[in-house]
Amino acid sequence: MTERIDGHTLLISLIATPIRHSLSPTMHNEAFAKLGLDYAYMAFEVGNEELKDAVQGIRALGIRGSNVSMPNKQAIIPYLDELSPAAELVGAVNTVTNKEGKGHLVGHVTDGTGAMRALKEEGVEVKGQIVTMTGAGGAGTAIAIQAALDGVKELRIFNINDQHYQTAEETVKKINGNTECVATLTDLSDQAAFKQSISESSIYIDATGVGMKPLQEESLINDPEVIRPDLVVFDVVYIPKETKLLKFAREHGAKKTINGLGMMLYQGAEAFKHFTGEDMPVDYIRELLF
Ligand code: NAD
What we know:
The structure is a single chain. By secondary structure, the protein is of the alpha/beta class. The chain has two domains: 10-108 and 263-289, Leucine Dehydrogenase, chain A, domain 1 (Rossmann fold), CATH 3.40.50.10860; 112-258, Rossmann fold (3-Layer(aba) Sandwich). Helix content is 38%, strand content 19%. The chain is built from ten helices and twelve strands. A six-stranded mixed sheet has the order 2-1-3-5-6-4, sandwiched between helices. Strands 9-8-7-10-11-12 form a six-stranded parallel sheet, with helices on both faces. Helix 5 links the parallel strand 7 (130-134) and strand 8. Helix 1 (24-35) packs across helix 10 (282-289) and helix 4 packs across helix 5. The chain is globular. The chain binds nicotinamide-adenine-dinucleotide. Nicotinamide-adenine-dinucleotide binds at residues 111, 134-140, 159-160, 162, 164, 188, 207-210, 212, 236-238, 260, 263-264, 267.
């Protein structure tokens, strides 16, 4: 590190809390080192209370960009100067750019494009498909909007009746009002409708986090009849690498099961491109970290 950092080194930050567990600092710093780019990436424990000052700090210090995670993804929007069209539609930001350090901050969201690229790299085409998904929180909204922008024919969202249900209703309205995709929302308690929807879909996406601690013993699908040999099952969770859902789907003959590692990698790669203008060496990073 001391060989790399000098008076010219440019800083990229990550602002979130909790954040010490994040893979992002290692991912970006390894990629900078591999490409010989004079940047350093640091994580800062920042919550909503410190957020306004932190954003001023980005401007004042000429920090060239920042990743943003919970609980700041929506809260940061009023402090930014501009949003990308996708961030505007999603209503959340995970990447901020500060071009040439001049203080004009643009918010982007790369979770949805990261998820779509992860599917593409696995040979899964979303265009023209019927997709069923569960979860409409931060990750689910970004995926839903990007899937619609990328040409999914029908997107059927199922959510439990919690505080995210309303977000899901808004997402469905945005998709139907701004894209060619036909989106619907159904309460997940209607299990017959959920199973029927998956039987008509080529892709099922679980964006709920069920399957990750403390719900690692749970899965939203437990009926073997739901899994077909032409169904792709994608779970955004990456710890564990194989959730109960993915194991169940694999054992019952799903066409493909995909975990959240690719989404994690490609959302980072797109942020890296925004920060540096360069392509992240994704094969190298995948080998090193995943
Ligand atoms: P969130 O809290 O914003 O949303 C969670 C969603 O799941 C909501 O729609 C909620 O209604 C639903 N839900 C919660 N508990 C449920 C249950 N028991 N049964 C059914 N539905 C339930 O969370 P988020 O920020 O969207 O994160 C969701 C998951 O996505 C987490 O596991 C997170 O780690 C993962 N994630 C992965 C990546 C990646 O790059 N792979 C990126 C972001 C988030």
